Structure formats: C-alpha cells, structure tokens
C-alpha cells in the first residue's frame, strides 16, 4: 500500500487555501472554455498555460488539470442542451442526451452525464494511482534504445491504427517531426533548417503551434458555420440528482464496460475520441432493445460519457509514467512540464514525488469538486451561450495572442501563431488530422535524441533495437502496428481462402 | 427578448419546465452561396506546397550532412529522411486524388463562408500589426470594440464597456498579478509604465 500513503501525502500537499482556490478557478475556467463554441479542452489549456508560468509546478499543474476536467464536464452541457458537441468526444453524448432534453428531461440527462463522467474518471484515476508508479519503476531500467522503441511504437500506432487516410496521418506526423528539428541541433550544435533567419534559432515552439492550430483555426471554422442556436435551459434539483443516482446501480454493466473501454483507448495513443463512440456502440449492442437507443435513453448518456472521461483521464497515465502523452491535451500538459523545468518520464516519480502525487490527488479532488460545481451551476453556464459570438471571438483572439507572446516574449511567435491558425484551418477542412502533428512536435526532439544516443552507444549499429527481448519486442510491435492495415488485409484474405476449403 | 423568458417555475412543473435559449445569427452564410473553390483543388494545392517544402528542407539537410558518421547519424540524417517521407506521402495523396476522380465538386468554402472567415481573419491580422506599435492592450481594446460594433452590430456602449472591462481584467491578471509582461505602446508610456 505504498501508493496509498504517497497519495495521502499528495492530498496533504493540496490542502492549502491557495491550491484549493486555484483548483476552483481552474474548474470554472475549464467549464467556461468547454461550454463556449470554438474552444475546447486543448485550446483552453494552451491559452491559459501562460498564466501558470510564474507559479510553482504543483500549483500550475493542479490548475491546468482542473481546467481540463472542467472542459470535459462543460462539453456535456452544450451537447445535451444545444445538440452542439463541444468536443469531438461529446458527439456520442448528443445521440441520446439531446432527445432527452427535448422531452423535458434535460436535468436527468445532465445529471447522468456528470455522474458518469465522474465515475469514468474515478476508475481511470484509480488505475493511474496503482499502475503508473509500477510502469514508471519498470521504465527506470529503460535506456535510450528502449525509449526510442517506445516513441516509435507511439508514432507507428498513430499511423497504423488511426482512422484517417494513412497518407494524411503520415504528412501530419512528418511535418511535426520536421518542425521539431528546426533550430539548434542538440547533439552536434549545428543549425538546421533555419535558413539564416534569426527567430528560428530557438526552433518552433510547441505551445505557439498548439494555440494557432487549435485556438485561431477553431475560430475561423466556427465563423464559417451558422451560429444561430436553439437549446434548452435546465436547473438541476436535488430530487433529480437523487433519482438518477438511485437508478445508477442498474446500469453497472454499462458503466463498467465503458470505463474499461475508455481506460484502454485512453492509454493507447490517439484513441481518446474513439472511446466515446465505442462505449456507446457496445452499450447498444449489449442492450436488450437496441432500437430504442437514440430516442432519449439514459443509458445512451451513461455509456459515452463514462468512456470519454475514462479515456481523457487515463491519457495522462503514459504521460506521467513514460513521458508519452495519450491525447492532445496530455501533450500540452507535457509541454507545460517542460516549461516548468521538469523532465517528463519515469524519473518524475523519483525526483518530484510531491509534484506527481499532488497531481494524482488533484485528479480525485478536482473531479469531486467539479461534479458539485457543474451540478449546481448549469443554468449559469448554459446562459453563457447567449453571449453573441461577435463578442466572444475577439476575446479569444486576444487571449491566444497573449498566450503565444508570453511563452518567449517574442512577437515572431504571434505571427507564427497566425500562420498555424491558417494551416490548421486548411488541414481540418481537407481532413489532415492534427493530433499526430501535436504529438510529433512535442516528442520530436526527445525521440531524435534517444535515437542518436542509442546509435552512439551501439557504434551506429541498427541491431541495437533488437539487442534484448524487451526492446526487440517493442520495436517489432511498432513495425507490426505500422503495417497493421496491410497485415489485417492479408489475414482476412488468407481467411477467405481457407473458408471455402473447409465447407 | 433574448434571456427575458427565463421561466420561474420549479423543476417538476409540467409542461416541460425548460425554456428555450434562442440566439439568432442575422448574417448567417447562405447554403446556396456559390463555392469559391473545391476541396479537391485545395487538397492538391496543399500536396504540391508540401512537396516544395519537403524539397527545400531536404536540400538544407543534405547541405548540413545527411550521411552516417562513425558515431551514428549526422545532424541532417533524420530530417532528410523525414523530408522523403513527407514528399512520399504528398505524392501518395496526389495519386489518390487522381484515382478518385469521381468525387469532385465538394466545395472547400462557399463565398458567404469565406466572407465570414475573412471578417475574423483580417481584423486579427490588423490586430497583430497594431500590437507592435500600440501595445497589446490598446490593440486589444480596438479589436474587441471594433469587432463587436462592425461585425456583431452590437450597441456602442455595450462594445465599449465589454472591451474596457476585458482589457482591464487581462491587464490586472497578466501584468499585475502574474508578472507576465506584454508589449506596451505610447498610451502606457504616458502613464510611465
């Protein structure tokens, strides 16, 4: 029960007025960001990151992760009341949540969404509490070849398992890795791809790119659409809450199934969005009367929300244990860690115990406080949508500019942000996924360093990636995943050849 | 009438207690607006641009050494091959565009949509230019007040109040409370900041 005592220690770090206040501010800002059209979890965290630069790392990560939880909760509000998914993973919540609101059961739907989100995160946090330290202590034995193999596995699984067209994922990833390499080469000290242009010496900052790609481009995309809204307001009474909670045990199977799916997909890179759909579809498939899904079943709210939150939370597990983010927002938090001077990876559990366990404890506390806040303040947040977009849009632009400038006090970064805004807009419209780009940009330097250090160690011999069973397994798995679509096709082809022979 | 219809009835009251929130969009893009360009054309243009980018970057990396030294790769080695991957994926994309000729005509952006996008993009661009001379806070004030007034057609006093309050809160949060220093202009110089 070492984890338990460390967790208690984490709680003791948290229980100061300053941190609790920051937590509250973070949650409120997060819900706000989650409710507003044109902003979501990753954007909110990226824009608000500069606020935390002068804080100590523990306060900073507590506030940022609370923004993240808040945004996750906030996404459900707009999906259910307005049929507008705030985030990609809230899409499945609209299937049954909005019909419920139309039938006058908005309060039940919202309570169900918030409660199941809470349950999903709780399961994921429990998993993090007990699994992350083990993985981290196992990973302490990793040398550069093992780390490179793990990075390779992350990249390959994005390409092999992603749903987008393969060449688009490849473009996004190669571009991210290339931009990560711009500037001073850390091993040889040579300048790369700067073309004598001075501001590029420092390289392309990850957070600037994220603010542009997610913040600015999202505003351009939102403006394109029809901004008229029609939705319901809801006030959640204690009676409704208790009524929904009494029904909860009946849906234990759905909740458990969705939590497991969510945790699994959250840990696998790039799986966070798929989780909510998969949770929904599984609940539908296992249901006795699947045809009633989509007409306002409470189970149809439980299933995707549990899975979405479980995956959103467990995406932080690989980030904490290995330094590999499982989602876009986790990647931004990872960028934050580097800004605060922490080196993400297994050593974090040894060198910065207070930080790690403070963060894990804040996941418990943040979700409990978040649940209470959303249940009591829904009407206020729903009415935020009354604020015209013409007022919201310029404020978001200003926040983005402040965020981009504050990172390195450079005007060049503001221009870069604008450029990334346009690139993000075009990429989203032609279907090039942005998540692999984000991941590649944040992991690029570290994976290149790992590769070159292993090459120096092995005297330039590529066989180092198969030199022991651990690294060999990971590397082979990475290559298998990269060619998974091809392998899958061959297998099904072979299967088709076999079947007629048998019958 | 927006917002004035909040119904005071309690949660359990029938008929459905939830009142509707209605927000209108007077300048919404028309569905029948003609397309400026097709997604297919833009996609092709992006692939060509990426090919060019890959070529330029590959040249730079080739120049700085893309070979294999005694102790492993030279500094240009990995980026050079990444350029090849980027170029390959772009060619692949161009190839799929050629093969799937049938699915043409999906509009990338309609004229109405482009107008609205430019309504945000151009002010944002001007804001970034103005930020260098006027400082962030004055430029923000101009952007928010101007945008609300001319794009949102919101009453003058609301625009002024909103932008002053927002800029004030930003200044208080970043420059005063968190010590994140933003670019300043002549107005701040007047106050000796």
Q: Which structural class best describes the helix and strand composition of chain B?
A: mainly alpha
Can you summarize the main beta sheet of chain A? 2 strands, antiparallel
**Rough shape of chain A?**
globular
User: What distance separates the N and C termini of chain B?
Assistant: 44 Å
List the helices and strands and how they pair.
The complex is a heterodimer of chains A (503) and B (193).
Chain A: H1 2-14, H2 17-35, H3 41-48, H4 57-82, H5 91-102, H6 106-139, H7 144-161, H8 166-181, E1 183-184, E2 191-192, H9 206-224, E3 229-232, H10 238-247, H11 252-267, H12 272-286, H13 299-314, H14 316-322, H15 328-339, H16 348-351, H17 353-383, H18 389-408, H19 411-430, H20 435-458, H21 469-482, H22 484-502
Antiparallel strand pairs in A: 1-2
Chain B: E1 20-23, E2 35-38, H1 39-63, E3 68-69, E4 72-73, H2 77-99, E5 107-110, H3 111-134, H4 136-150, H5 156-177, H6 186-190
Antiparallel strand pairs in B: 2-5, 3-4
Helix pairs in contact in B: 1-2, 3-4, 4-5
Describe this structure in words.
The complex is a heterodimer of chains A (503) and B (193). By secondary structure, chain A is mainly alpha-helical. Chain A is built from 22 helices and three strands. The longest helix of chain A has 34 residues, at 106-139. Chain A starts with a helix and ends with a helix. The mean pLDDT of chain A is 83. A two-stranded antiparallel ribbon of chain B has the order 2-5. In chain B, helix 1 (39-63) runs antiparallel to helix 2, helix 3 runs antiparallel to helix 4 and helix 4 (136-150) runs antiparallel to helix 5 (156-177). Residues 1-17 of chain B have low confidence and may be disordered. Chains A and B meet through helix 8, strand 2, helix 9, strand 3 and helix 18 of A and strand 1, helix 1, strand 3, strand 4 and helix 2 of B.
């Amino acid at each position: 029960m070492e984890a338990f005592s460390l967790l208690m220690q984490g709680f003791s770090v948290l229980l100061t007025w300053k941190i609790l206040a920051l937590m509250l501010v973070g949650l409120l800002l997060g819900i706000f960001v989650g409710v507003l059209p044109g902003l979501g979890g990753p954007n909110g965290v990226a824009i608000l990151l500069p606020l935390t630069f002068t804080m100590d790392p523990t306060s900073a990560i507590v506030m940022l992760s609370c923004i993240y939880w808040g945004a996750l909760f906030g996404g459900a509000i707009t999906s259910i009341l307005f049929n507008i998914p705030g985030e990609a993973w809230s899409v499945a919540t609209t299937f049954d949540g909005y019909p419920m609101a139309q039938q006058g059961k908005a309060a039940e739907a919202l309570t169900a969404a918030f409660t199941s989100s809470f349950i999903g995160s709780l399961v994921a946090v429990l998993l993090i509490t007990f699994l992350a330290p083990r993985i981290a202590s196992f990973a302490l034995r990793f040398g550069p070849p093992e780390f490179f193999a793990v990075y390779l596995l992350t990249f390959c699984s994005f390409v092999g398992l992603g749903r987008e067209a393969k060449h688009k994922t490849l473009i996004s990833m190669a571009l991210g890795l290339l931009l990560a390499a711009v500037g001073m080469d850390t091993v040889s000290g040579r300048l790369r791809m700067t073309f004598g242009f001075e501001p590029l010496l420092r390289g392309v900052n990850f957070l600037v790119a994220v603010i542009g790609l997610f913040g600015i481009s999202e505003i351009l995309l939102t403006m394109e659409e029809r901004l008229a809204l029609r939705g319901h307001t809801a006030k959640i009474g204690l009676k409704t809450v208790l009524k929904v909670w009494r029904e909860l045990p009946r849906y234990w199977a759905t909740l458990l199934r969705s939590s497991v799916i969510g945790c699994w997909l959250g840990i696998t890179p790039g799986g966070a969005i798929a989780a909510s759909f998969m949770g929904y579809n599984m609940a539908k498939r296992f249901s006795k009367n699947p045809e009633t899904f989509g007409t306002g079943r409470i189970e149809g709210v439980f299933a995707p929300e549990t899975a979405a939150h479980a995956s959103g939370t467990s995406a932080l597990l690989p980030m904490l244990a290995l330094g590999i983010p499982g989602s876009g927002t986790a990647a931004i938090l990872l960028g934050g860690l580097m800004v605060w001077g922490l080196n993400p990876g297994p050593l974090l559990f040894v060198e910065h115990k207070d930080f790690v366990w403070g963060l894990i404890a804040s996941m418990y506390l943040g979700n409990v406080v978040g649940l209470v806040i959303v249940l009591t303040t829904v009407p206020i947040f729903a009415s935020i949508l009354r604020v015209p977009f013409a007022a919201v849009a310029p404020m978001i632009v200003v926040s983005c500019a402040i965020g981009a400038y504050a990172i390195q006090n450079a005007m060049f970064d503001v221009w870069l942000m604008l450029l990334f805004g346009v690139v993000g807009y075009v990429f989203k419209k032609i279907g090039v996924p942005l998540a692999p780009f984000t991941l590649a940009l944040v992991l690029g330097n570290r994976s290149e360093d790992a590769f070159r250090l292993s090459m120096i160690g092995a005297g330039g011999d590529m066989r180092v990636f198969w030199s022991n069973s651990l690294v060999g397994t990971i590397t082979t798995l990475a290559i298998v995943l990269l060619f998974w679509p091809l392998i899958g096709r061959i297998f099904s082809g072979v299967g088709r050849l076999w079947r007629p022979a048998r019958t | 009438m927006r917002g004035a219809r909040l119904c005071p009835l309690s949660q359990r009251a029938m008929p459905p207690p939830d009142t509707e929130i209605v927000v209108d969009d007077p300048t919404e893009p028309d569905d029948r607006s003609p397309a400026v360009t097709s997604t297919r054309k833009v996609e092709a243009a992006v692939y060509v641009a990426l090919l060019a980018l890959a070529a330029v970057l590959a040249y730079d990396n080739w120049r700085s050494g893309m070979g294999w030294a005694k102790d492993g790769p030279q500094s240009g080695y990995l980026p050079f091959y990444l350029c090849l991957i980027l170029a390959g994926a772009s060619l692949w994309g161009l190839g799929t565009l050629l093969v799937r000729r049938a699915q043409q005509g999906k509009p990338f952006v309609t004229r109405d949509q482009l107008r609205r996008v430019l309504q945000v993009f151009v002010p944002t661009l001007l804001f970034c230019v103005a930020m260098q001379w006027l400082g962030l806070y004055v430029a923000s004030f101009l952007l928010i007040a101007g945008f609300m007034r001319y794009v949102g057609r919101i009453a003058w006093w609301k625009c002024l109040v909103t932008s002053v309050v927002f800029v004030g809160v930003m200044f208080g949060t970043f420059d005063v409370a968190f010590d994140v220093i933003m670019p300043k202009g002549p107005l701040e110089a007047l106050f000796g900041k």
